[in-house]
Specification:
The chain has 253 residues and is an alpha/beta fold. The protein has helices at 4-13, 22-26, 42-53, 88-97, 109-116, 145-155, 182-187, 201-206, 217-224, and strands at residues 32-34, 57-60, 72-73, 76-77, 82-85, 103-105, 127-131, 167-171, 193-195, 210-213, 228-231, 248-249. Strand 1 (32-34), helix 3 (42-53) and strand 2 (57-60) form a beta-alpha-beta unit.
Amino acid sequence: MAGPALSVWRQRFGIAPLEASLDEALEGAGSVLTGTGWATSIEHDARALARQRGLPSAALLDHWVNYAQRFTRDGQTVLPDQIWVTDAQALRIARDEFPSADLRIQPDRQMQEQVEGIRDVRTAPPTLLYLLEPARDDWGHGRSGEFQALDYFASRWPLPGVPAHVRVVLRPHPSDPPGKYEGWVESHTGFVTTLETGVPLREALSDARWVAGCESHAMVVALAAGRTVFGTLPPWAPLCRLPQPGIIHLREA
């Protein structure tokens, strides 16, 4: 474990020990299951090592974007023996990108668990939660995409159906460095905005009636929990790749 996954491990299992290396982790294993995150190369390296050792491997796609890139590091592509997805929309995308792969649908138990722990939207306080995430592109405008989306969000305030006086909470992505958005908050005083870190997603969603973001997986969780969800990608950015029809895209609203 490394990156955001390590903090999740610690929340779930405390100080339970981890293997010191992939070689040790795979020693005696009969198969290998990985995620498909982009923040580290551990999962990619594990799939490559499994192939070298002749171990069957499976990888879970828990999102709906950048499928091909998730299996490539430094020009090397390593596909698993099976690719797992969690819904029919993801299966359709995966079939297009990996037409010869062994694809399987698995139940999204994490999504089920998260939604079950979120309060009914009718009892939530009048708060809008903005789910931040690195865009990794400036869309030709010389400024990080996540800040362009934030600026566009602010320019459209109040959002359709959202009262102007509600509290806005910005939730940084686990991979965002500390202090990344403090300057933006200080320079945007047109509405009540606070930064929130260290709060579990289910608690953050429980305390919001409306949710906004670019392409975060948490937006899909919010939809499943009955929240009104807004997409904040500006008109000059690529279209949002989340396939869920319930998202209200501000560029179209």
